[in-house]
Amino acid sequence: MEYLIKFIYAFLLPPGLFVTLLAALAFWMFRKKQRFCYVFGGLTLFMYLAFIPLTGILLVHPLENHYLPPDHPEGDVIVMLGGGATLGTPDMNGEGQLSGDAANRLLTTFRLYKLTKLPIILSGGKVYPDSGVEAEIGRRQLVALGVPENKVFIENKSITTRTNALNTKKILVTHHFKMPILVTSAFHMPRAVMIFKKIGIDVTPYPTDYLVSKKLALYPGQFVPSSGGIAFTALKEYVGMLASAF
């Protein structure tokens, strides 16, 4: 019964509500024999496919499975890319917190540090006026976890993956690092590797922050509209990869 209620709610609340309204409009136009009913019918189908979790999973899977974390990562520095931060929010030892994506990346970076004792480069600046400076927040949190401050380098100007790569390269060259281990979200890793390679940096990918499970499971919840929006996350990566190829 609970699943049935969730199924119904999904079509009565945004974004499912928009699909329901468009479908009703298309049906009404069809009954009135108006030619534009097919246009609205197609738009309804597009919106439905865009908002159901299954579409996002199918789009994200190839991105997240492109690279696997190596069992024994080899390198001379860990590079973590930022993924969002809040400004002025309370934290245990200061203000500002990393977003979900960035926090997952930081956790993996810390675990890699514990395993390898390699120095760390945090790359990420203040993306929006109400954003925190990602690299500075990350350094504060890593130091609080026990990483020596002199082991953490920060690059706090980047606002895109391309500027992440360009600004990180300056630190790599200055400190003679040759074998960076790159930490970022699994869905973001193919684009990040492509951009780093384009400016002459070969990295060892260490993906983390997976959005979808390894195994695909089909159940009714996969076919109801959701506000999760991972399909749009995946499309952003594909468009970014296409743009980076030129």
Shape summary? elongated
Number of domains: 2
CATH architecture assignment of the largest domain: 3-Layer(aba) Sandwich
Helical percentage: 40-55%
The CATH superfamily of the largest domain is known as HUPs
* Strands in their spatial order, largest beta sheet: 5-4-1-6-7
CATH class of the largest domain, anyone?
Answer: Alpha Beta
Largest sheet, described in full?
5 strands, parallel
Mean pLDDT: 93
Hey, roughly how much beta strand do the residues contain?
A: 5-15%
**Helix-strand topology string:** HHHHEEEHEHEHEHEH
Number of helices: 9
Ends apart, CA distance between termini: 52 Å
InterPro entries: Cell_Envelope_Assoc, DUF218, Rossmann-like_a/b/a_fold
Protein name: Membrane protein
Pfam family, one: DUF218
Domain DUF218: 76-240
What does this protein look like?
This protein is of the alpha/beta class. The protein folds into two domains: 2-64 and 225-244, no CATH class; 77-208, HUPs (Rossmann fold, 3-Layer(aba) Sandwich). 49% of the residues lie in helices and 11% in strands. It has nine helices and seven strands. It has helices spanning 2-10, 16-31, 37-51, 53-64, 100-116, 134-145, 161-174, 189-198, 230-244, and strands at residues 77-81, 90-91, 94-95, 120-123, 152-155, 180-185, 204-208. It has a five-stranded parallel β-sheet with strand order 5-4-1-6-7, sandwiched between helices. It has a two-stranded antiparallel ribbon with strand order 2-3. β6, α8 (189-198) and β7 (204-208) form a beta-alpha-beta unit. The mean pLDDT is 93.
